[in-house]
């Protein structure tokens, strides 16, 4: 329901020529999310996990939907686009990498710095996500598209 509401607002804004500072929209939406995050400890956990972030996330989605601000341009470069492509693999693997790395670190490595641990886990997760995308996701996407096309072409 909220997504439909945001889309209708987006349509009404995009149909009319308006002098909107899209960069301001994007930056202010990120800042609003940061403000909500800073004060999240004052909000009951149930509210945080349900409706607390709706307002900043709706504003964020709305402001970036135009893709006309400088932040959108910055995020549209090839590297950011590729990181978006492999983000599902990152989501799937990062927790697994973190858990196993912490065990290995405790038994063998002894790295004390949380920052170094976070960077190593991040780097390993990125590499695994890249290979997952190249070796599994992209071939499976091609296979599924070919399968759909073959079914669509059969009478």
Briefly summarize what is shown.
The chain is mainly α and 155 residues long.
Radius of gyration: 21 Å
Mean pLDDT: 91
Overall outline: extended
The number of helical segments is 8
Portion in strands: under 5%
Order of helices and strands: HHHHHHHH
Low-pLDDT windows of residues: none
Largest sheet: none
Secondary structure category: mainly alpha
- Number of beta strands: 0
As a percent range, the share of helical residues equals over 70%
Distance between the termini: 38 Å
Could you list some keywords that capture this structure?
155 residues, 80% helix, mainly alpha, 8 helices
Describe the fold and architecture.
Helices cover 80% and strands 0% of the residues. It contains 8 helices and no strands. Helix 7 runs antiparallel to helix 8 (114-153). The model has no long low-confidence stretch (mean pLDDT 91).
Topology, element by element:
Blueprint: H1 2-15, H2 22-38, H3 45-48, H4 54-65, H5 70-75, H6 78-85, H7 87-109, H8 114-153
């Amino acid at each position: 329901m909220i997504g439909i509401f945001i889309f209708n607002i987006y349509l009404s804004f995009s149909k009319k020529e308006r002098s909107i500072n899209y960069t301001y929209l994007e930056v202010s939406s990120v800042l609003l999310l940061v403000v909500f995050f800073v004060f999240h400890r004052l909000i009951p956990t149930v509210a945080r996990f349900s409706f607390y972030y709706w307002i900043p996330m709706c504003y964020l989605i709305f402001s970036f939907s135009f893709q006309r601000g400088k932040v959108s341009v910055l995020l549209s470069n090839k590297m950011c686009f590729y990181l978006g492509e492999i983000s599902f693999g990152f989501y799937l693997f990062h927790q697994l990498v973190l858990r196993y790395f912490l065990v290995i670190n405790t038994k063998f490595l002894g790295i004390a710095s949380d920052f170094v641990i976070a960077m190593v886990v991040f780097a390993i997760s990125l590499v695994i996500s890249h290979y997952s995308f190249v070796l599994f996701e992209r071939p499976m996407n091609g296979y599924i598209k070919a399968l759909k096309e073959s079914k669509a072409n059969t009478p």
